[in-house]
Amino acid sequence: MEMSGLVKALGAQPGVEVAVIGVHDEYVEADRRRWDGCSLTTVPVSRFSPPKLDYASNMLSCLRAQNPDVVHCHGLWSYHAWATVRWADQARRPFLVSPHGMLDPTDLAKSRFVKFVAKQLYINRLLHGARCISCLSESEAESARAFGLRNPICLVSIGVDLGPSTDADPPWGDAVPSGAKVLLYLGRLNRKKGVHLLLDGWARALRAGPPCEGWHLVIAGWDQQGCEAQLRAQANALGIGGTVCFAGPQFGQAKVAAFSHASAFALPSTSEGLPSVVLEAWASGLPVLMTPQCNIPEGFAAAAALRVETRADDIARALRELCSMTDGERREMGAKGHRLVREQFTWPKAAEKMRSVYEWLLGGGAPPPCVRMD
Question: Both 191 and 324 in a single domain?
Fold first, then answer.
């Protein structure tokens, strides 16, 4: 999960110094500009590292060299988690952990044997030894408790930048007719995200006739395990290939352009921590169609999103409702989402909460309001 926004917002506060340590991979140079102004150290992964472990033998020595007052470990199952445990044993200083959805039952069910071994070796020590577990949502906090963790939990959501704009053309080019309304999906292409359900629902909505005629579905994202080929074949088999555009992964200004030229956004995911892409859609003023599994109930409460279940027939119903709205009604829904992001989901607001947690871990006293002890 992209954390440069939080790091920059924390570093902008007086008296706070933030240093980031991560692994050096093929994406580092392309991502480095996102970390401009941040203290960033990347450690090479050993060529003998098992897949996904990211064994970087110099990470512990980098932690020692930074000599931090507190360490915030983001994510589980990789070598950086073991390095955090070893650092805490030696430095006798506090650390906290952000699972980022990795304690969700769906995630825990994958690679069970490997995760069982990791738990015995270091993950149990990491999780039970953390002074605090940082959760993005109520659902993630429930997963932490279900895992057996009794540590204090702080609820600090991610943030986004408010409505960046661009004059760039839409990334789908001539694949979508000029003037057509666009329903955008943006994210990884795998079944967990429910894109196959979205295609099924889209086909059902179109077969029912108006009001979805004249709309196009743009699927933007990076392929995982051959899912894109399966989705393309599904769209053709459903007879909707002419209304579906696969735009590929979108980053930077291309991503901003995708949001700027879309009419609405959809994420029918079956499991999420807290998807930043929904917040980015709202920050761009788009109405959203999403499932409860996206774990942003504030969007439904604010009437900024249409609620759908992970069923094609329900997605079709919501699509027809969305397309039936006037342009003004969709703009109003998007404006409510923009207001929600401005009030609750910006990086400075997340950084303010996170700083209060760090200060509490270091100085003691009463926990801040975002921390629950039960």
Answer: yes
- Are 43 and 80 in a shared domain? yes
| pLDDT on residue 2 | 67
Q: Which residues of 241-271 are buried (b: 16+ CB within 10 A; e: fewer)?
A: eebbbbbeebeeebbbbbbbbbbbbbbbbeb
- The dihedrals phi and psi of 5, each to the nearest 5 degrees, come to -65, -40
The sign of the dihedral angle between the CA atoms of 185, 103, 279, 24 is: negative
Domain membership flag for residue 236: yes
pLDDT score, position 152: 97
Residues 27 and 149 in one domain: yes
* 9 lies in the same domain as 155: yes
Question: Given a cut of 70, is residue 145 above it in pLDDT?
Answer: yes
Phi, psi of 94 (to 5 degrees): -80, 155
Q: Which domain holds residue 236?
A: 173-344
302 CB-near residues (< 8 Å, 6+ apart): 336, 337, 339, 340
- Count the helices and strands in the chain (H runs, E runs): 16, 13
**Spatial contact of 336 and 278, defined as CB atoms under 8 Å apart:** no
Q: What is the pTM of this model?
A: 0.86
Percentage with pLDDT > 70 across the chain: 98
Q: Clarify whether residues 191 and 77 are in a common domain.
A: no
Whether residue 76 is found in the same domain as residue 190: no
CA distance 314 to 194: 13
* DSSP letter assigned to residue 287: -
Alpha-carbon span 6 to 353, nearest angstrom: 11
Pairing of strands 244-246, 264-267: unpaired
Is 164 part of a structural domain of the chain? no
22, amino acid identity? G
Q: How many domains does the chain have?
A: 2
Q: What is the CATH number of the domain that holds 130?
A: 3.40.50.2000
